[in-house]
Amino acid sequence: MSTKNADINIGGITIRPGTHVDLELPAASLYTQTPLEIPVHVIHGKKKGPCLFVIAGIHGDEINGVEIIRRLLRSSKFRGLKGTLIAVPIVNVYGFVSLSRYLPDRRDLNRSFPGSERGSLASRLANVLITEIISKCTHGIDLHTGSIHRNNLPQIRVNLDIPGIEDYAKSFKIPVIINSNSRDGSLREACNEMDIPLIVYEGGEALRFDEVAIRAGVKGIRNVMKELGMIRTKPTGTTNRKVIEPMVARSNKWVRAPESGIVHSFKRLGAHVEKEESLGVIVDPFGHDEVEIISPLTGIIIGKNNLPLVNEGDAVFHIAGFEKLEIMTSQVDTIQKMGPVISEGLFDSVNHDVNTSE
Q1: Per-residue DSSP letters for 255-286?
Q2: Do 140 and 289 share a domain, yes or no?
Q3: Largest CA distance in the chain
Q4: Share above pLDDT 90 across residues of the chain, in percent, rounded to a whole number
Q5: CATH of the domain at 151
Q6: What does the alpha-carbon distance between residue 51 and residue 69 come to, in Å, rounded to a whole number?
Q7: Dist CA 302 CA 134 (whole Å)
Q8: Full residue range of the structural domain in which residue 266 is found
Q9: Nearest to residue 319, comparing CAs of 280, 265, 282, 273?
Q10: Structural domain count of the chain
Q11: Beta carbons within 8 Å of 323's beta carbon, 6+ residues apart
């Protein structure tokens, strides 16, 4: 049986094994007649193997994924790649140019899959992605962040009812895994129906670069590719490498504001909290009233609203509980310490200087 990879066709362009190709998928023009295209980078290995898509920018204001893909392509040589990597850094080009989560008609692209050739703008864009990219792949990674003013600790979201998806999610080697059902019209739901395993990586906040989330994302994708047998990583010789043990949260809950007012938070993202512990207080502008925000469970803060102005019922803290909380706390602390200097062993293959290649 031949081990040579076959040609792949995307957007009418034939890509031969052993080549790297940058191409652009046409999208509907703006009403000014300005053309827009979806950028796609294809690394097509000479040898057979999985076909992995990595996409970002389904929500146009989620920019961490754009930087993750840029660094992934710059920091990796991909020599001897088995299979194919298809990277799409900006899917929702309309939202990206206008700094918006949505499309011009206010539709959410991630509620529009699998799409249609004759539907709305969102539906047509979803159809292009499914037809030209997703349908040709065996595995997928979808990069997201929190929404405006909401910061997410690096985490993986999957539906654990899908056979084999837990092992795939753990191959990313991020400590936090959240069991989350697919939403109607989401890319995850479409991939489930196509029997394409997909993991969603969440990290950081919309319209903000988060260095920890970016570096964790780059390393995580490389971990997945290594697990799939697409690439090999060189041993570093480090004997005291920090070992990541991904864990599925046994429960997770958003803590909502009991009153409207101004939040003064006592806890940072990634902090360990106990049940009934005070997470912060909500005060009124005149200092007359003060209401505590109480944790409903013991766990780790995996999401946080950074906007101090809240209305009653607004989500403020997202907390996840774990069986081995002490181990999880230690691993989250390792990630939280990530900054200009990379923690030993955890993100060793990512650039220290984002402007230079590995």
Answers
A1: EE-SSSEEEEE---TT-EE-TT-EEEEEE-TT
A2: no
A3: 78
A4: 81
A5: 3.40.630.10
A6: 16
A7: 29
A8: 251-321
A9: 273
A10: 2
A11: 247, 250
User: Cis peptide before 175, with omega less than 30 degrees from 0?
Assistant: no
Percentages of the chain per state (helix, strand, coil), in multiples of 5: 20, 30, 50
Whichever domain contains 262, its CATH number is 2.40.50.100
Strands 150-158 vs 198-204: parallel, antiparallel or unpaired: antiparallel
pLDDT tens digit string along 287-326?
A: 788 999 999 999 999 999 999 999 999 999 999 999 888 8
Crossing angle of helices 64-75/211-227, nearest 10°? 50
| CA distances (Å), origin 109, targets 16, 171, 251, 262 | 31, 27, 28, 33
Q: Are residues 25 and 70 in the same domain?
A: yes
Contact criterion met (CB below 8 Å) for 174 and 246:
yes
Three-class DSSP category at 96? helix
Helix/strand/coil (H/E/C) assignment for every residue in 180-246: CCCCCCCHHHHHHHCCCCEEEEEEECCCCCCHHHHHHHHHHHHHHHHHCCCCCCCCCCCCCCCCCCC
CA 122 – CA 284 distance, rounded (Å): 41
Which pLDDT tens digit goes with each residue over 102-134?
A: 999 899 999 999 999 999 999 999 999 999 999
Structure tokens at 203: 């990290």
pLDDT digits (tens, 9 = 90+) for 200-243: 999 999 999 999 999 999 999 999 999 999 998 666 555 556 67
Q: How far, CA to CA in Å, does 14 sit from each of 37, 42, 109, 332?
A: 18, 11, 28, 44
